Amino acid sequence: MAEEEAKKVEVEVTSEPTPPPPESEPTKDVTEEKSVIPQPAPEELKPDDSKALAVVEKPPELAEEKPTGGSHDRDAALARMETEKRLSLIKAWEENEKTKAENKATKKESAILSWENSKKAAIEAELRKMEEQLEKKKAEYAEKMKNKIAMIHKQAEEKRALTEAQKGEELLKAEEEAAKYRAKGHTPKKLMGCFGG
């Protein structure tokens, strides 16, 4: 509110016709007069933080226009100020909406990332569980196979022992029969059949 009053006062002051400059000095533009500001004395340069002033730059189109006086110019200046105010409010609203949209998107991205991480963790836990089960089954199967191998080896040893025993019996039987044939002086009949005699 205070800004509007200050702008109105400024517009009213600038809308008054400027008195003609003295003939001894060359004519100066209004913008040049505003740009030449006398330097304050060093005593006046004490910083006062409670009442800091900001330099407000006007757009170039406003600085080039020279007020010619009258209520029409004041109305036009007020209309321009209203337009500027409306445009600055629209720009502020736009920036606010953009910030809201960015914050909303960031929040959604964060939620998506959290969801993705939790799903990945669940899948990885399930995979580890399956791997553990497979390792357990593999160990059980390997144990079964080792038991089968041991049983086959045991059966093979039993068969070898049986074969050795049969071989020993047959050798003993062959020696006994050979001793009988020697004692009687006969040749075995089976041998004759083998040689084709």
Automatic annotation (TrEMBL):
<dbReference type="InterPro" id="IPR005518">
    <property type="entry name" value="Remorin_N"/>
</dbReference>
<protein>
    <submittedName>
        <fullName>Remorin-like protein</fullName>
    </submittedName>
</protein>
<feature type="domain" description="Remorin C-terminal">
    <location>
        <begin position="85"/>
        <end position="190"/>
    </location>
</feature>
<feature type="coiled-coil region">
    <location>
        <begin position="113"/>
        <end position="184"/>
    </location>
</feature>
<dbReference type="InterPro" id="IPR005516">
    <property type="entry name" value="Remorin_C"/>
</dbReference>
<keyword id="KW-0175">Coiled coil</keyword>
<feature type="domain" description="Remorin N-terminal">
    <location>
        <begin position="27"/>
        <end position="80"/>
    </location>
</feature>
<feature type="compositionally biased region" description="Basic and acidic residues">
    <location>
        <begin position="58"/>
        <end position="75"/>
    </location>
</feature>
<feature type="compositionally biased region" description="Basic and acidic residues">
    <location>
        <begin position="25"/>
        <end position="35"/>
    </location>
</feature>
<feature type="compositionally biased region" description="Basic and acidic residues">
    <location>
        <begin position="1"/>
        <end position="11"/>
    </location>
</feature>
<feature type="region of interest" description="Disordered">
    <location>
        <begin position="1"/>
        <end position="75"/>
    </location>
</feature>
<dbReference type="Pfam" id="PF03766">
    <property type="entry name" value="Remorin_N"/>
</dbReference>
<comment type="similarity">
    <text>Belongs to the remorin family.</text>
</comment>
<dbReference type="Pfam" id="PF03763">
    <property type="entry name" value="Remorin_C"/>
</dbReference>
